[in-house]
Amino acid sequence: GHYMPTTPTPAMWLVIELVDAHGALMGARYAHRIGRDIEYADGAWIEHADTRIAPGAELAIARAWRDPRTKHVTHARITVEVAPDDYYTRLYERQLATRLPPARRALYEAALAKARAAVYVAERRLVAVGN
User: How far apart are CA 63 and CA 77, in angstroms?
Assistant: First the structure.
């Protein structure tokens, strides 16, 4: 088996939203990043976090929702978003936060737009919850 995601370039987001019977968000949303958070700096790779899921492992999330609107919750909307170019998205954002010549800035902006546009929903489920 392989860790999920396998390489450091993509990331997945597990998004949990509590919604009412009409699908309206009831003030409760949580997003958990799944992947490796690495950066190349000063001639070396630095790993800030590794939240990948190991083969055969599970991810358990327990949250306490305090928004008063949660009393109207009927479902949890669970979404798995995939960002295939997550590493590059963060790299381009860091570069764009610096001073760049206009031509280089335009290239980074175009690359960032393309990376952000590649994000997709792999799975979405509506799960009934009790109050």
Answer: 14
pTM of the model: 0.84
Residues near 29 by Cβ (< 8 Å), separated by ≥ 6? Answer: 15, 16, 17, 18
Q: CA 50 to CA 48: how far, in whole Å?
A: 7
- 3 state SS of 100: coil
pLDDT, tens digit, 9 for 90 and up, residues 75-127: 999 999 999 999 999 999 999 999 999 999 999 999 999 999 999 999 999 99
